[in-house]
TrEMBL record:
<protein>
    <submittedName>
        <fullName>ParA family protein</fullName>
    </submittedName>
</protein>
<dbReference type="InterPro" id="IPR025669">
    <property type="entry name" value="AAA_dom"/>
</dbReference>
<feature type="domain" description="AAA">
    <location>
        <begin position="5"/>
        <end position="182"/>
    </location>
</feature>
<dbReference type="InterPro" id="IPR050678">
    <property type="entry name" value="DNA_Partitioning_ATPase"/>
</dbReference>
<dbReference type="Pfam" id="PF13614">
    <property type="entry name" value="AAA_31"/>
</dbReference>
<dbReference type="InterPro" id="IPR027417">
    <property type="entry name" value="P-loop_NTPase"/>
</dbReference>
<feature type="region of interest" description="Disordered">
    <location>
        <begin position="257"/>
        <end position="277"/>
    </location>
</feature>
């Protein structure tokens, strides 16, 4: 099953959530792959990978071989590289993604990631896809390749507006490219239970008909510390309340996943459809 984490708004927690859920998945014994589609390479960095170091097995190399006529192509199964964590592999980002994007767009390579991930499906029980903060070629390719979608939300007015745009974009993408993309729900991140405003803005998200996943992930400086130490928070501070909230969220997602017979449209999609009408 492939789970993408996307919101075109920046800084809402996409990379933090992708890496921590992938780390929990791997720690639970599931063979897990993280794909970093963001040129910033934050989730690669979080997992200890220097995206500026020489590496010919990045996500840019994977896309590159779809447009290079003369290069000998590397089998897809050779792209994932191990991380410091058992069961957790990564295909890291690369600064070369930017230069490659116009050529990939021009030559309609938008389905290539889905084809590549189809080949990896037998190797990994869970594939997590981190995305850039805009609906560009790479985030679209990820949304086309994914089965399930999580939308991080950081309790901000601009985030609420971004959700409206996102729902429009998703409806179109579903219609045109991936009818089976299931919206698992909105992950409320950086939640402050003491303040009134976050609860009010979350209520407005609920009114849109979007499924809100629980528990809400609290705000804590431990997250930034874990980034600094390049160690997923769930390993950096496993006893911390933030890690425990992640573990609970992960368990809920997985138990809901058990009830869905196969990757594809879940009942949750009805919320997203309602938001369109
Ligand atoms: N629950 C949290 N508590 C405190 N800080 C957080 C939390 N989640 C994320 N952050 C911080 O917020 C910032 C943005 O997080 P992150 O990089 O995960 O977001 P993003 O959506 O991937 O950003 P971008 O759009 O730039 O890719 C980082 O500094 C991160 O440490
Ligand atoms: Mg990010």
């Amino acid at each position: 099953m492939r789970r993408i984490i996307f919101n075109q708004k920046g800084g809402v927690g996409k990379s933090s959530i992708s890496v921590n859920l992938a780390a929990l998945s791997a720690a639970s014994g599931k063979k897990t792959l993280l794909i970093d589609l963001d040129i910033q390479g934050n989730s690669s960095h979080y997992l200890g990978i220097d995206i500026n170091a020489k590496n010919d097995k990045t996500v840019a190399d994977l896309f590159d071989q779809t447009v290079s006529w003369f290069s000998v192509s590397t089998p897809i199964k050779q792209f994932p590289q191990p991380t410091a964590y058992e069961n957790l592999d990564i295909i890291p980002s690369s600064p070369r993604l930017a230069a490659l994007e116009p050529e990939l767009e021009r030559r309609y390579k938008i389905y290539k990631l889905r084809e590549a991930l189809d080949e990896l499906e037998s190797e990994y029980e869970r594939i997590y896809i981190d995305t850039p903060p805009n609906l560009n070629f790479y985030s679209k390719a990820g949304l086309i390749a994914a089965h399930n979608l999580l939308i991080p939300f950081d309790c901000d007015t601009f985030s609420h507006q971004a959700l409206l745009t996102l729902m429009d974009n998703l409806a179109e993408l579903r219609d045109d490219h991936n009818r089976n993309l299931a919206l698992e729900g909105v992950v409320v991140n950086m939640f402050n239970a003491q303040a009134k405003f976050p609860a009010q803005i979350i209520e407005r998200v609920r009114e849109l008909g979007l499924p809100l996943l629980e528990p809400f992930i609290p705000q804590s400086v431990k997250m930034k510390e874990s980034h600094y130490h390049q160690k997923p928070l769930v390993h950096f501070a496993p006893q911390h309340k933030l890690a425990q909230h992640f573990a609970e969220l992960y368990a809920r997602l997985e138990s809901a996943e058990q009830q869905v017979p196969s990757p594809g449209m879940s009942a949750n999609n009805e919320g997203a459809k309602a938001a369109q009408s």
